[in-house]
Structures are given as C-alpha cells and as structure tokens.
C-alpha cells in the first residue's frame, strides 16, 4: 500500500517534450508479522523512474528496490508506445526480474510468494488504467491533443502538461516488491496520493464520497481505512460495519491499524454475543425508565450533531439501580448509543456533510451526595467502560452545566475511566457561567435552548424525580434480573485450558435428531470433537481449585468425560476432530444415529512438531506466535431440532472461512461424515 514518496531527481526539456522524474516510494506491506519481525522493517522503499517522451509518444517506467538490495534484487520495466499499424492504439509491455541472494533462510518461500502475487497483480493493471480513464471522463477530458513543438503551437506547453498527466496515470509501482517476502499489492500513482480504489470494492472511496460521508482524510488515513475494511471483507463473514464506524475505531487509535483492528474485532464479537444490532427493534425499556430517566434527544447543535440532554442532577440514580438493576441501565444506555448512530446517519443526509458524533448536554443542578451512592457510581463506571470500548469517537462534545461543589468528587471517581481524547471534549461550566461569552450560545442555537436553562424551547425530556420505593426490588430479584439480561444472548462463553477442555452434554431421545452448533474461536486454537455415550456422565465436580467447573461472567469451563472412561468402551467418537484457528467462526450440524448422550467438546490444540524436517514450517511458526498462553476462549450456541423440522439440507451448508485473526488465512474444506454431518466456516 502506497504511503508516501519523495522526488529525487526531475528533468524537463526546454521544449517540454521530455519529462523525466525519479521518486523514492515508501510502501507499507501487509505481510505476516513474523517476516516483518525477522526483517526488522515496517516499510520498504523502491526507486521509480518515469520517462515521458511526448515527441516519440513513449512512456518508460523503471523501478528497483532499495530495501534489502544486498539480499534481493528486483528490477521492473514498463513501456507504453504507439502501435505501429494503428496510431490510435497503445501498446504495453512489462518485464521484471527477481534475484534472491539470501533472505533469512526463507528464500524459496519468498520466491513462491513473489511469483504468485506478481502474477495476480498484473491482472489489476487494466482495472487501474480503466479507473483513471473514467476519472478523466468525469472531469470532462475526453481528448488529449498531441504534443507539438512550441514554434508551431504556443499553447502546446499546456497540452504537453495535460498529456504528461494522462500518460502518467497508468504508472504502477512494481509488484515484484512481493519478493521482499512482505506480500501484498503495492500499487501507486506517481503523481502524489495513492490510487484510492486499489483495495476498495465497488470503487466506493472516491473524492466525493469521502467529502460527503467521511470528512477530510489524509492519503495515509484513507489508505488505513481501505486496508482495514478490505481485511474485514476477506476474513469476517458477519455484518461488516459501515465506513464511518470503522473510521471511529481508527481515529480512536490514531490510525494504528493493528490496534484499531484488535478493538474493532472485540467490539464485533461483543455486538454479536449481546445482539446489539437488534436492540432498537427487539428491546423495550421498562416503564420506570421511561418515567424517571431524565434524558432524551433534543434537536441538534450548530454543527449538525444530534443533541442529547441529560438532567443528571434531577435523576434518582439510587432509585433506578434499586428498581431496575445494573444490567437494565446498561442496556438502556446501549439503546441510546444505537439511536445516536442512527441519528448521525440521518443528519449526514440532511446537512449534506459527514456527521459522525453527537453532542451531550448534562445539567447537574440538583447533584448532591445522594448521587455518590457507591452501587450507583459502580454502575456508572461500568457503563462508561462498555461505551468507551464499543462506541469510540461518537461523543463530539460534552457540555456540563451548573456543576455544583460536589462535582469535583464525582469527577475524581469517573475521570480515570475516560479516554484522554474524550476528556478533551468536555466543557464544564459552574453556576450560570454557561450564559456568558464562550457559553452555550457558542454551540447551540438560541431557538433550541431548553426551557429549564432559561431558553425558549420546550424540552420533552422527562423531569426525573424520586423513584417510589414501592418499585424497589429485593437484592435476589435484582440479581436474577441481571443474570437474565446477562445471559439473554443466545451465545455462551467458555474458557478452554491446556489439559482442561470445555464440554457440554446433549441428551437425544429420538434417533435422527439434528444437533446444530455455531461458535467463534475468540482466542487461541482449539480442536472440536463430538462423542456419543449410552450412559450419562456424572455431574462435574466442584473442587477448591475449580479444576472441573469454573464459572464466571467471562466464560466457564466444564469437564464431563470421566478420566477413567476409555474411548471405544465407554464412549465413541462420531465426528472426525476439527482443528479451528483463532478468529474462525464455525457452523455445522450432526444427524444423530442413536439415542443417548452426546458430548460436544472444545479442546486446547497443541501444535505437533514437523516430522519431515527439523526446521519449522512458516505456517507453524506464524500460528505459534498467536498462542501466548495455554488458554483459549470460545463463544458458542447449540440447538437440537427434529429431523422433520430441519429445513437446511446438508449440501446447503457451504464451506467458507471467517476470521478475526489476520493469520487465520487457511481455508478448511467441509467434510460430510458417515453420520451425515456438515461443518461450515462462515
């Protein structure tokens, strides 16, 4: 991916017929981390020389590598000329050479990567040329006059300039850069910014789209967005976030792709587990929230951002927690954030410019020591933690009004949990300071200032007030409600340790029932097995060390197969073991042959040593780097249905691949066992 370039040498003839420019190009290669680590580089540099001869109507492009030139020699030559029989046709020739002297013992691997990538990237040359031709047509340029000497046409210099621009548009930085062992496309335009659609399906990221929906982006920022979105499209088969949302995670990590990818993937897993995408359609807040939660949406600020008003000082936080519990409050705040994302999209269409965040106005009049009730503060801190992790860069500005003397105490408790970038967006006003210069009128139009702030606009936000104690619930009721909301997702989490698999038991009464499963491997590599037993295993023992059953909000670990059981005597394997890599999503089904007890097992995968050679394979080394400890995590859902109700035929479960890990690149094909089961990775 093109990052930057510097002009090393440039020459123009007096008559403007010849223009030679030499650039040093900086490329960011999307390569396996192991190779980058071994090579000790993050970027590679190529020198590219473009020679345009308008008189002869030729364009020559020469390139060679600067990085690792003592180990690898790459040369490429591209030539554009006029067809000898039809001067309206353009001929294109390309040649390249690769000489690998030494490359840290990976010579053969690098050569294979280079040849494979180079061959595939040649095919993209036509697409790039066609893109720039369409761009010229959109700019109204359908004909570029030929160069003529200045003595014949005084204005030929401008024509020559246009021709040079048109001829230079098809320049390609040599794809043989793959020989560095840092495999990825390395396409660039020599005229400054990178070609924006090199990795962008549907050519979506054009200048108008960026200006209209994303805002000002530097070429590097645009490149990061394209790369991260392309990675998601290639590896994540679930719902792909919109560009605006991906951009929020990039901005939250200062456009560090690795860090942004990590938190984005964690957020996508969280959204799937708790079905956040459907919260606005499927969840209705309890009546007590509608009556006593003093917050709501109220028009927009001067920048077009949706405006959310929260009268925290009038809200009985203790009463809400006692009446609802922590989980219900969290779910309500999540629904507010989802509504905020929807309103940002609406305002983007209304105002014709990108609106990606909202403004929050918090009125603290009435805030007192009651609001510092410990369980209430604990609930607030957890809400902040969840929102910070999953809705980064959605708060454009926070206006805190009428802050009382007790506010510094609350701020001391809360501020450490708020990101530094978010804290910079806070504006705090004590007393009536918000009415003076630099106050509320700088950010909100006078016509929509709420009436309770001496404005003229009636605000429909509930006034809050004390929650009646008759609505309070017992600690046991709240615990059960929190547990219900926590486990309301159809997915469950489990931890898998080395020597301690996680197992679940499914009892089958009728033969030919269908066991279905859907699970994500969130961390580490695991082996998935299915066993059958005629007798039920004993309930898991709970000892002091929790070796047989460990339960926590983050996942549990249960072992059912007794250590004295023998495979083939006490239980049998009904499916071939399936190795699942970190980041993969696996779906499948098994048609049972016999009634009895079926055990689904997720076991820690230990990588076998390579028997053919003492040297480890590259894929094994790369995979081993991903397992930092003897612990794996899975998120799973299972269901048993009757065969007559099973509508999805076995052949409809196509084998595909998904991953949150960049290194989970190998596709494993599905296999249908004798018991008519099918496993699909999507």
UniProtKB/TrEMBL annotation:
Cited InterPro entries: CRAL-TRIO_dom (IPR001251), CRAL-TRIO_dom_sf (IPR036865), CRAL/TRIO_N_dom (IPR011074), CRAL/TRIO_N_dom_sf (IPR036273), GOLD_dom (IPR009038), GOLD_dom_sf (IPR036598), PRELI/MSF1_dom (IPR006797), SEC14/CRAL-TRIO_domain (IPR051064)
Pfam families referenced in this protein's UniProt entry, alphabetically: CRAL_TRIO, CRAL_TRIO_N, PRELI
GO molecular function: RIG-I binding
Keywords per UniProt: Cytoplasm, Golgi apparatus, Immunity, Innate immunity, Phosphoprotein, Signal transduction inhibitor
Listed GO biological process terms: innate immune response; negative regulation of RIG-I signaling pathway
UniProt keyword annotation of Phosphoprotein present: yes
PANTHER family (alphabetical): SEC14 RELATED PROTEIN, SEC14-LIKE PROTEIN 1
The protein, known as: SEC14-like protein 1
Upper classification of the organism: Eukaryota, Metazoa, Chordata, Craniata, Vertebrata
